[in-house]
Protein: Gram-positive cocci surface proteins LPxTG domain-containing protein
Amino acid sequence: MAKLRGLVLVGLLGAVLFTASPALAEPVRPAAVTMSVAHAAAVPAPAQTQPPGPVLDPAQTDKANTEKTKNKLIAGLLAVVLLGIVIWGRKIRSKRAKKS
Structure:
């Protein structure tokens, strides 16, 4: 019975960790780039006609995050169900082995 409790706890812990939100992690900041004065003078400054990075639509980002979270929850639930099936099967097999 202790093994069963341990396996269930490990399965639940795995499901919780598997479904943890990656949005809680802090973004990685790039290291500062340094240039010497002579090098900076030799390289012409680029024209700033376009924004330096891609423009992200918050609505699309939120939609993608909710879809990803939904998929993780489904996968976690499926993992817990499969773990339950395995534990149940082992329990039945051990009962049959004790009878014979």
In short: Helices lie at 2-18, 37-42, 58-99. Residues 20 and 56 are 23 Å apart (CA to CA). The first helix runs from residue 2 to 18.
